[in-house]
Design goal:
Helix content: 55-70%
Distance between the termini: 71 Å
Strand content: 5-15%
Order of helices and strands: HHHEEEH
Radius of gyration: 19 Å
Structural class: mainly alpha
Number of helices: 4
Mean pLDDT: 88
Strand order of the largest sheet: 1-2-3
Low-confidence stretches: none
């Protein structure tokens, strides 16, 4: 149980936490406090810090799953209490199914890119033989 009142959050938070649970990962009060310390002198919105931490952990796990760096991904986190959202590679992530579909779609795109590169390499080798 958190010492923070974390009720003013997206309806997706419980499902996002299920994604983190797969990786035995979570966000605890210490994580929230540490992030809040780095902010301005104003009173931080703990709900938003909590959600941002969850979303960024999901993005990091996604990157690990597909074998890329976080910086290689096109993702967007929007944090505004109940109106918060997470999009990875054009896919809005509401729950585990969305997350799994986004991973599968990304892997398929990677496979297609690899196949195209292999075709280009084969074409270039054939040109050199002539």
């Amino acid at each position: 149980m958190s010492v923070f009142n974390l009720d003013d959050v997206s309806s997706n938070v419980e499902d996002w936490l299920k994604i983190l649970n797969r990786y035995n990962d979570d966000v605890d009060d210490d994580n929230i406090w540490e992030s809040a310390r780095g902010l301005s002198d104003e009173i931080p919105e703990f709900n938003n810090i909590y959600q941002e931490l969850i979303m960024m952990k999901i993005v990091r796990h996604f990157a690990n799953e597909v074998g890329v760096n976080v910086s290689d991904l096109d993702f967007e986190t929007y944090t505004n209490c109940q109106d918060s959202s997470l999009t990875i590679e054009g896919n809005t992530i509401h729950d585990e199914e969305d997350y799994d579909n986004a991973i599968e779609e990304y892997r398929e795109r990677l496979d297609d890119r690899d196949a195209e590169e292999d075709d280009e390499d084969e074409y270039n080798w054939n040109d050199e033989d002539e």
